[in-house]
Write a structure and sequence with these properties.
By secondary structure, the protein is an all-beta fold. 0% of the residues lie in helices and 39% in strands. It is elongated and about 90 Å long. It starts with 21 loop residues before the first strand and ends with a strand.
């Protein structure tokens, strides 16, 4: 009788969680929403990214809340239901078959605001001119318009 010993060696390619998404940035912040965009991670961990998870937190708070989950084909999301004037921080994580990778966080907090509160560029401007000068402490400033060539103060 013969006994054979067989050794089997399994080689498994290293599969890991994906790296963080890159270049997370705000594309708009109006009304009660913030729109974000990002690029795919440099390293998918050896397994295709299946989705992205977006989380939010108020800037003065420590706990993160789920904000959105989007498919891997999408590298943007609009987060609604936010309070105007409240500062929020966002982060995005990539997910593959192994799990959720580390997040990439916005470098600054952002607050959604009403489109009516955004400053608008004027078609023209009025330069200030010194009308009278009475030493270093007292000046009278006025506006000279192109319409009437007069001074307004």
């Amino acid at each position: 009788m013969y006994i054979a010993v067989v050794r089997v060696r399994w080689v498994v390619a290293g599969v890991d969680k994906p790296g963080p998404p890159r270049d997370v940035h705000v594309t708009s912040a109006v009304d009660n929403s913030v729109s974000l965009s990002w690029s795919a991670p440099r390293d998918d961990g050896g397994s295709d990214v299946t989705q992205y998870v977006v989380e939010k937190r108020e800037a003065l708070r420590m706990s993160w809340q789920p904000a959105a989950t989007v498919s891997a084909r999408t590298t943007s999301a609009t987060i609604g239901g936010l309070d105007q004037g409240v500062m929020y921080v966002f982060r995005v994580s990539a997910v593959n078959s192994v799990g959720t990778g580390p997040p990439e966080e916005l470098s600054k907090a952002i607050a959604p605001k009403s489109p009516h509160s955004e400053s608008k560029l004027l078609d023209f401007f009025y330069p200030l001119e010194v009308l009278t000068h009475q030493g270093c402490r007292h000046c009278k400033l006025g506006l000279r318009t192109n319409l009437d060539h007069g001074y307004r103060h």
